[in-house]
Design a protein that fits this description.
- By secondary structure, the protein is an alpha/beta fold.
- Helix content is 54%, strand content 14%.
- It is built from eleven helices and six strands.
- Strand 4, helix 4 and strand 5 form a beta-alpha-beta unit.
- Helix 8 crosses helix 10 and helix 9 packs across helix 10.
- It is globular and about 50 Å long.
- GO terms for molecular function: DNA binding.
- InterPro entries: CheY-like_superfamily, NreC/VraR/RcsB-like_REC, Sig_transdc_resp-reg_C-effctor, Sig_transdc_resp-reg_receiver, Tscrpt_reg_LuxR_C, WalR-like.
- This is Response regulator transcription factor.
């Protein structure tokens, strides 16, 4: 199956570069290009891509607001946010808006391709250089709030799995920690996402921090 990609960036040369990298792969194709966030939202609705590469800083509707609109409209597309700025606030805002991944623009071509494939599968994706600081930032910027009723619907094991997801553990690592099979962990993850109404694993990380299931690594 060929993964369909929309590229949103206000610089034509950047869009062209991404298109060349993506279209060179047999399993990827660029189906549309947008020069601002508003156009990215429109193309996502019209073209139904699997992944949207979204620049953060664009004129008019920026990448954060465009990501929010895409998530709210119920699109199946997963948004992979790209920026030249290694800034925690942008990462937090993008993930809260519904982004499924975050990468810096200085990545290698192969890293971009791998990121698109991972994001399309629903796997968690964050640039390693910013991951730990992003997780810390969540708790510091999250207001106190009562847990939603949906959180109470989780079983004890499902809450445990959600906590471990929030600690950025993979299914294999969670399986090892809980001494169960990966298949069992996968079933628990699916149940957690369904019960909490979450789009993907990244949003589960957000939920784990928002509801106080995970404490920051660094203060």
């Amino acid at each position: 199956m060929t993964l369909r990609v929309v590229v949103a960036d206000d610089q034509a040369l950047v869009r062209t570069g991404f298109r060349m990298i993506i279209d060179a792969r047999d399993d990827l194709t660029v189906v549309g290009e947008a020069s601002d966030g508003g156009e990215a939202v429109r193309l996502t609705r019209e073209l139904e891509p699997d992944v949207v590469l979204m620049d953060v800083r664009m004129p008019g509707v920026d990448g954060i607001e465009a990501t929010r609109r895409i998530a709210e409209c119920g699109s199946r597309a997963r948004v992979l946010v790209l920026t030249t700025w290694d800034v925690d606030a942008h990462v937090v805002a993008a993930l809260r808006a519904g982004a499924s991944g975050f990468l810096l623009k200085d990545m290698r071509p192969g890293e971009l391709v791998d990121a698109i494939r991972l994001t399309a599968r629903g796997d968690a994706l964050l640039a390693p250089a910013v991951l730990s600081r992003v997780l810390d930032r969540f708790l510091r910027t999250t207001p106190d709030q009562a847990p939603p009723p949906s959180l109470l619907e989780l079983s004890g094991r499902e809450r445990e799995v959600l906590t471990l997801i929030g600690q950025a553990l993979s299914n294999a690592e969670i399986a090892g920690r809980l001494r169960v099979s990966e298949a069992t962990v996968k079933n628990h993850v699916t149940a957690v996402l369904r019960k909490l109404g979450l789009r993907d694993r990244v949003q589960a990380v957000v939920a784990a921090y928002d509801h106080g299931l995970v404490q920051p690594r660094h203060l």
